[in-house]
Structures are given as C-alpha cells and as structure tokens.
Specification:
By secondary structure, the chain is mainly alpha-helical. The two termini are 24 Å apart. The chain is globular and about 55 Å long. The chain has one domain. It has ten helices and no strands.
C-alpha cells in the first residue's frame, strides 16, 4: 500500500466512520470532571479520573474498528478492492490510538491547569488503561461479529477490576490509583498483543474460508 492510498483511506474513514466514535470519546472526557474532581489533587488521587472513567474513551474508539465490515454486503465490497480490508482496519487502529492519546493528553493538561499533581506517568497510566480496555472490546467485537459483544466484554472487564485486583495482577486497570507510582506498561504491551493477535487470527480465518 503506497502513501497516497493510505492517505485516501484515512480521509474516507475519518469522514464516514470516525466522527461518531470520536464524539463519544470526547463526551466521556467531558463527563469525567462531573464525576471526579480534577482540582488540586495529589499524585495518587490524580490518577483516579484517568483510570476509572476516562479509560472508557478507549472502548469508544477501538471497539468499533471492524464495525463497517460486519455488514456482509459491505465486507464483500471491501474485499473486492485492491487494498486488503485488514490493512484498512490497521489504519483505523492507528488513528484511533492517536486520537485516544490526544484526548488523554488534553485531559492531563487540563488537570495540570487545575493545579493537580500530574506527570507524564499519569498520561501513560490513563492511556494504558484506556488502550487495553479498547483492545479487549476490539477483539470481542471482531470474533463475536457484533460491536455490542465488544462493548459488553469491555464493560465486564472494567467492572471486574473492582473486585479482582489480586487476580488480575499486571492487567489491573487502576494500578496508579491504588498507589503505584510507575506506568503499568503491561497494559500497553498486552493491549497491543491482543490487537495484533486479533488481526493474525482474522487473517488465518479468511484464508481458510
């Protein structure tokens, strides 16, 4: 795929597939200060709005990556094109993850302006939790062939974090909120593994069909 083809795909998808999901993610960011205070918080307290609510922005952005192709007629049309449809979905993951990073970064900056004790670690923690949660939704939406399955799986994993801290280990979404000072890079790593695995398995399934 050359640059011009990739740029055309990005333009089309940003115009037709992305705005609604981005709008929902932004709405989550706007809602978060209404649920959690973001004024003059200490280091640990500053992580709570990021890990405990803003993380839902990841679900909004990444879960519907495969949504257009889950209509069989559209999928057949996409597969008839020169560019492989999974390549199109990879592009969607990239710009969705970039949008997620922008939303989390803007939120952390807003907290900084509100005199919260936030650092780059808070950005990493907020992005990691949202990215992993979105990856879970993406995988279940793809293999369940329905975005609702992905949203439900993402929500169930989120709720499970309230009672399964010890069992989830490094995949615990609220690690910094619980007192850890560093970024939980395992969430970013395993989120990437889940997304990559979803694409690899999807490719294998398509070849078998």
């Amino acid at each position: 795929m050359d640059f011009s083809a990739a740029a055309k795909i990005v333009r089309i998808n940003l115009r037709h597939n992305f705005p609604m999901h981005f709008g929902i993610a932004v709405a989550v960011a706007i809602l978060t200060p209404l649920v959690f205070s973001i004024s003059a918080l200490d280091f640990t307290s500053s992580a709570r709005p990021l890990e405990m609510l803003l993380c839902m922005a990841g679900t909004a952005l990444l879960t519907p990556v495969f949504l257009p192709e889950q209509n069989e007629n559209i999928r057949d049309v996409i597969r008839s094109k020169k560019v492989d449809y999974l390549s199109v979905c990879i592009i969607r993951v990239v710009y969705s993850a970039a949008a997620l990073a922008a939303i989390v970064g803007a939120f952390v900056l807003a907290m900084k302006l509100c005199e919260c004790n936030v650092t780059l670690a808070h950005f990493g923690a907020g992005f990691g939790s949202a990215y992993f949660l979105g990856a879970v939704g993406l995988a279940f939406a793809k293999f369940g062939e329905n975005p609702t399955v992905g949203y439900m799986a993402s929500m169930m994993y989120y709720l499970g974090n309230y009672g399964l801290k010890d069992k989830l280990g490094k995949l615990y979404l609220f690690s910094m909120s619980s007192g850890e000072n560093g970024v939980n890079f395992a969430l970013i790593l395993w989120g990437t593994v889940i997304i990559a695995g979803t694409f690899i398995v999807s490719k294998i399934i398509d070849r078998v069909k």
